[in-house]
Amino acid sequence: MEIRLRGVTKVYPGGVRALGGVDITIESGMFGLLGPNGAGKTTLMRILAGILHATDGSIDVWGHDGMTEAGRLAVKRTLGYLPQDLGLYPDLSAREFLDYVGLLKGMEDRALRRRRVGELLEKVALVEAADRRLKTFSGGMKRRVGIAQALLSDPRLIIVDEPTAGLDPEERIRFRNLLSETAGERTVLLSTHIVEDIAQTCRHVAVMAGGRVRFQGTTGELVEAARGRVWTLSTDGGRPEGDLTVVSMVHTGAGVCYRVVGEPAASSGAAAAEPTLEDGYVWLMQQGGGGPA
Questions:
Q1: DSSP-assigned beta bridge partners for residue 93
Q2: Which of 72, 139, 206, 287 could form a disulfide with 50 if both were Cys (CB 3.0 to 4.6 A apart)?
Q3: The domain 3-223 is classified under which CATH number: 3.30.110.30, 3.40.50.2300, 3.30.70.100, 3.40.50.300?
Q4: How many other C-beta atoms are found inside a 10 Å radius of the C-beta of residue 244?
């Protein structure tokens, strides 16, 4: 079964429009929601999680009407949510925190709850640190505690909002692998502004900007959108000419080698390059997806 959002809008007091008619269809497995900061991703995640109420539109989560109180309650019973800033109790250990969250989620059988906590601590590779206070944990370890609490009630839908922001490369890879392993028969909605996180975990993606969906499809389709528009060229140090967005640059002994998206000047000596997901995203933004990437 699918999760379907049609014409979802959110207008805050004062007339601030965060979402302007969002249409998305989400199937099981890993689904990426990509976009710059301020695109409306967090607002959409909070609406799906039942924390915010949409101003208008329709939300169907496996037959539950997400626009009604009864529907939102039904969704919450099947939901695991990891927000951008999960409030942790710094003086609790990871084991104590997860046990407490289990109680809040209605896991009243103490033996069953503790067994589940132990299983999840092992899953997120925190067994050895389980009895340390959370205030001693690194950012990556705290994120792993966050995904463990999201999995406590064995949810069908898991929403994770900017989970790898601020993590070092090793922790980012560890967390991405953990999310992929978690997906299975579940639906995992990964919201991020980091293109690499989507490239490494998701086959389906929606790109948001300015409170609207600018693209929905497979990551391969987004890559193909930039074919014929990605180039490499070298200069003696000056910025390349043409209607271009610079994706990356490498300083060499002779000057600078640029990777660009757009239409380089005919005299630039640009060579066509194989596109990547990042190139597809930059091209989409360049064509009116909400401003430069």
A1: 133
A2: 72
A3: 3.40.50.300
A4: 21
Strand-pair partners of 191: 33, 161
Contact of 50 with 76, CB cutoff 8 Å: yes
Strands 64-65 and 56-61: antiparallel
Strands 255-264 and 242-252: antiparallel
pLDDT of residue 74: 93
Q: Name, of 15-24, 261-270, 283-292, the range with top average pLDDT.
A: 15-24
| Whole-number Å distance between alpha carbons of 158 and 179 | 10
What mean pLDDT is predicted for residues 119-134?
95
So what's the pLDDT on residue 1?
66
Higher pLDDT, 265 or 98: 98
Residue 5, H or E segment: strand 3-12
Q: Is there a contact between 175 and 205 (Cβ–Cβ < 8 Å)?
A: no
Could you tell me which of 28, 93, 38, 23 has the C-alpha nearest to residue 291?
A: 38
Please, where in the chain does CATH 3.40.50.300 lie?
3-223
Q: Which two tokens stand for residue 264?
A: 């380089």
pTM over 0.85: yes
3-state secondary structure of 178: helix
